[in-house]
């Protein structure tokens, strides 16, 4: 249950509303948006505000600028795409805050109009959670709406700072994300299966530990596999492996048994001579990894083993590919898993940037019950953490 006030619990009619969105979208070399899903996900909140005759002031970050303006990180492409999606003019400013912007909002801006501020991370005050920067942003509006779940784990000025100066509520996307992801931990239909991939065990330590007290089965794939295999005494060759995490892997294998969780690892691996999409490859069992080769994907027997777990589950959470899916030579495992989950009658939830990229590649996002817009925030929530961007909103 979501215990914070939302956009529907506060009077936004004829108000100036500052909205934190997540328009950290991929751009091509011509600075065109190549994936607009995050912009589309913000539309219910924006349309609700327009319907209620609000002045809509959007703010977002894009990329990783070093606290100063960089043309390649400007939000003009996002504003252009939003115009196309809403059919409404979006006035984009080249500054984040200025007296001119404030005067425009107060005196010239029409109710029902949308404006967009420049990339928040052009100002070092954003990441520093500066009070001065927070106050400047807050001075533009009467109400703050946070609809950027992807940034909810950040203690930044636009996420937590402004909440000290304005009545602050959640947008529709924020509410949905929290409700879906917390339901996985609190009331999943069982059996509950989680599939974790990605390259590093160290990135997933806390979520693995927390989930081993929640799930019925846990599948591990991707680069983190080899740390677990090494912890069991297997040769892993030149595969990515965090030797300093083998102790944790052993601890998790023991905890899984203690909690009666079926922890599933690959039983065969597609290995390559080098890290290259065109490298020589072959299929080997986990017992016979060549010392001078590296693991790049799960093998056919592992695919069938994982699919069997997927078939028996009633709730599935997937975060992280199980191989180097960006190269066709090593994409079979991730593609097979993606299609198996998409075809499952279970409640299916996916999160994480690489996972979303895989779903886009195979055009499977519509087949999932929920695709989370925030990888880092989703993982922290599943670690059992409270998100700063949620904590700071008004309680119901």
In short:
This protein is α/β, with parallel strands linked by helices and 396 residues long. Helix content is 34%, strand content 15%.
CATH superfamily of the largest domain: Phosphoglycerate kinase, N-terminal domain
CATH T-level topology of the largest domain: Rossmann fold
Count helical runs. 15
Strand content: 15-25%
Give the distance, in angstroms, between the N- and C-terminal Cα atoms: 11 Å
Q: What does the radius of gyration come to?
A: 23 Å
Structural class, please?
alpha/beta
Silhouette = elongated
Per CATH, which architecture of the largest domain? Answer: 3-Layer(aba) Sandwich
Secondary-structure element order, as H and E?
Answer: EHHEHEHEHHEEHEHEHHEEEEHEHEHEHH
Helix content: 25-40%
User: Strand arrangement, largest sheet?
Assistant: 3-4-2-1-5-6
- Assigned CATH class of the largest domain: Alpha Beta
- Biggest beta sheet summary: 6 strands, parallel
